[in-house]
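Ticket #4471: structure export looks truncated?
Reporter: QA, pipeline team
Priority: medium

Steps to reproduce: submit the single chain below to the structure queue and open the exported record.
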Amino acid sequence: MTPLQVLWGAFFVIVGGLLALDLGVVNRHAHVITLRQAASWTAVWVGAAFLYCLAVWWGLGGEKAVEFLTAYLVEESLSVDNLFVFIMIFSYFKIPPERQGRVLKWGILGAVVFRLIFILLGVAMIRRFHWVLYVFGAILILTAVKMLFHKEGAELDPSKNLALRALRAFMRVDATHQGEEFFVGHKGSLHATTMFATLLVVESSDIAFAVDSIPAVFGITQDVFIIYTSNIFAILGLRTLYFLLAGILDLFAYLKYGISFVLLFIGIKLVGLVHPSVGASLAVVGSLLGLSVLASLVFPPREENGEDPAE
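Actual output as written to the record:
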């Protein structure tokens, strides 16, 4: 067997084993995920990603390992930014904490499938039409500019989600059902529940996220193995990361600016204006994200009204 075949096999064994343990044993039944559980499982997923990066170094060399790590950091940072949207979706549908894990479980498993489809389509398009890379670069530059000037919370109304509107057009949504089922029977007809409506909005939101994240990773490498494995390691840890960071996301007020400049850098790289090495790209991405987090902690933004809340 070649080193690449060994790495593919190890990837499926590691991911399959951790998923079976996480979702099939530890979190099989709906319950409130504690901060300690979330921290433990986040450490497991992040640790697995870094150990796998070392395996990539062993099998494919240092350059491929750096590509994997850079792609992983970009995807993970974009995922953290997307947690704000998940919080808003759960709040809109009034999903209690003990049932949020079930929605995220199926949403992230669906993302695994959709990411593979998008990655394979992207690779096929690039191999057939190289100019697609310039289109990806333009998308990233526009996205970066939009993020820089986008007011937090604006235009984030789940009721306007196209998938949700299509569901309501073809099936009744039972907003009174309080269980964790996705569908219920009522007077001989099948109704969707609020849980399914929430899952649909989460899944469609992730598809929209992929428009940013997939082109961003193509700006780092066009290797299907590196792109897919780094993506999957990042998004599979998103479920527990949500419960770990949900209460403190406001502390990372400047993260979106770091992500914006990362997307801008990769977009400029894709359109051919700069030609950094793989190592330089990792340094730039890591520095931008690290500085944005540091700035958020050291210089937290003041209240918008600038007034003392006690007055």
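Status: closed, not a bug. The export was complete when the record was re-opened. Leaving a note from the reviewer for reference: Strands lie at 173-174, 183-186, 189-193.
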